[in-house]
Each structure stands twice: as C-alpha cells, then as structure tokens.
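Quick review question:
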C-alpha cells in the first residue's frame, strides 16, 4: 500500500494567508464573495512552493501591446496605466514576502506577438511595447517582476512563423472551440468579451457595423485559440507556477483572475485604456476619449502619460464667513 503524506498544516496556513492577500483583487463576474478555501487549485500550487521554502512563482499572460484604437489609448508604448499596474504587482509580491520570507515573483507573459495579426498591431510596435515594459521594470526597480515573450522561446524566427508554430502545436481545433462556446457559459462570456474588444479596437474599418461584427466574431475564435496555445506553452516552461489571468475567472477555476487597477467593468486593462487621476489621488482606467473630457493630459519624459482631473470643489471656509 503506497505511503501518503499529510499536508503540513503550517504550509497550508501560509498558503491560505497568501491567497487572502490576493482575494481583494480577484477579477471575477461572480457576485458572492469567496474565501481562500474555495481556491483549491491555487492552494495546491502555492503549497508546492511553500513546502520547499521556495519563492512562489506566478505567471500572468497579458501586457501584449496598446490597442490600435487612438480613442482608447495615448499611444503605442506603456504609460502610467502600465506603470501603476506593474507597481501594484510588485507590491503584491512584497506583501507576500512579509508573511512568507522566500517571497514571490511574477512572470509577465507578454503575448502581443501571439495575437498581433489578429488584432491589427504591427510586430515592430509589439517589440517596442515589450522592450519598454522591461525598461520600466528596471527603472522602477521592480525586481519581483520579469517579462517572458515568444522571443525567449523561438528567438529571431519571423513572427508569422512563430505564430504558426505555436498554433499548430498547441491550439485547439476550431471545431472543438465552437462546440465549447455553445456548451460552456464561461467560454461563451470570454468569446463575447473578446469580440466586443475587437470591435471597439477597430478604428479604420470601412464596411458596415454588422460586417465588422461578423469579422470580429471570426477573429475572436482565433484569439482564443492562440490564447490557449500560449497558455499551454507557458505551462510547459513554468509547470509549477500559479496561473493568474487578466480576464474574469469564476471561483475555483484553474486560473485566478486579478484586477490591476480600478475600472468601470471587469474587462478593462491598461493596454485598452488611459489612466485618470481624480482630485483625491485615486486612479481609474477608462477610454482616452472619455478621460480627456474629464481631465488634462500630463506628459512624462516627453510622452503622454495620463490625465489628471481638476479639483472643482469650492474651498470651504471653516469659520462659515
């Protein structure tokens, strides 16, 4: 009869405490609050690191490139939205280190080249965005973070070749994905969300709205196929890591959805928006077109960075005069 080892209660307690640090930022469409005990998949992964007294490794696919729609973003390079998000992720790792000495690190799996042809962003802009992410991490000394992209795996192969290779090797078939969209509510919500983003990101379509929607529905399947392929490739290179996601995830899913900054919905990300600072110092992500109606544009190092909302509140005289 095989021997079994009971979980170390100290490790389990630390893992639960780490999860409790993540829970306030859980990105989900579920309305009921959840406890750490509901995230068994993540607890098992965290336990694996804690039992070995190793830093907990998280992988976060995202930070691909800026949206090609100028009504949504300030440009094609990272700006204050990314700086705030990266700083948040680094701070999260520092908070974990306070309760678990080996700490944590987050591998940002920048996936712009995975989708570039489907989202209409040139590969040279994706390179520039990813390179600037690395520069921001270095400049701000965010040493708990690193960036991982297709170039780390496939080197200098042409980008179309890289995309074809991971699609052929790892992506589900279109038929299987269509069947899943028909039968799985979460996949259907993801498909609809990506379709909406593709429609909103298209700034130069010359056909009708219905034609654009048809095209984006088709491209959305390709985005999900590539996303699955990229996820499989990440798992192959980081097999023990705790998987984070910038998309909403249900409680108990294998991925833990994480909210980077306050936003009006569960889908907005820094690369689809601009950052607005209100008079109380709070930051919110929103489309550039809306942010520029609410605030003034601020430049940093010669580039557009974010918007700041003017304080229009009347000064109050404490003496009532």
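Suggested answer, residue by residue:
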């Amino acid at each position: 009869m095989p021997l079994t080892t009971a979980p170390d209660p100290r490790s389990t307690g630390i893992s639960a405490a780490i999860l409790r640090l993540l829970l306030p930022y859980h990105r989900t469409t579920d309305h009921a609050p959840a406890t750490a005990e509901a995230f068994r998949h993540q607890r098992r992964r965290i336990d694996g690191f804690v039992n070995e007294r190793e830093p907990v490794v998280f992988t976060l696919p995202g930070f691909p490139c800026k949206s090609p729609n100028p009504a949504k973003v300030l440009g094609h390079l990272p700006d204050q939205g990314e700086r705030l998000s990266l700083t948040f992720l680094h701070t999260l790792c520092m908070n974990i280190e306070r309760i678990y000495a080996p700490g944590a690190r987050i591998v940002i799996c920048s996936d712009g080249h995975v989708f570039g042809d489907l989202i209409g962003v040139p590969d040279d802009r994706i390179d520039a965005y990813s390179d600037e992410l690395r520069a921001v991490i270095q400049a701000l000394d965010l040493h708990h973070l690193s960036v991982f992209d297709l170039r780390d795996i496939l080197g200098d192969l042409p980008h179309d070749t890289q995309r074809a290779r991971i699609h052929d090797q790892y992506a589900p078939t279109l038929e299987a994905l269509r069947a899943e969209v028909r039968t799985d509510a979460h996949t259907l919500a993801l498909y609809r969300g990506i379709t909406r983003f593709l429609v909103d990101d298209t700034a130069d379509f010359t056909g009708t709205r219905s034609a654009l929607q048809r095209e984006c529905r088709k491209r959305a399947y390709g985005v999900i196929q590539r996303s699955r392929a990229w996820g499989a490739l990440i798992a192959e290179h980081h097999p023990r890591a705790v998987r984070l996601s910038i998309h909403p995830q249900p409680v108990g899913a294998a991925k833990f959805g994480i909210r980077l900054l306050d936003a009006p919905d569960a889908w907005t990300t820094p690369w689809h928006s601009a950052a607005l600072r209100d008079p109380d110092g709070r930051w919110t992500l929103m489309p550039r077109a809306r942010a520029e109606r609410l605030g003034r544009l601020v430049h940093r190092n010669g580039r557009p960075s974010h918007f700041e909302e003017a304080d229009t509140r009347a000064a109050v005289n404490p003496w009532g005069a």
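Why it works: The chain has one domain: 11-160+231-309. DSSP finds eleven helices and nine strands in the chain.
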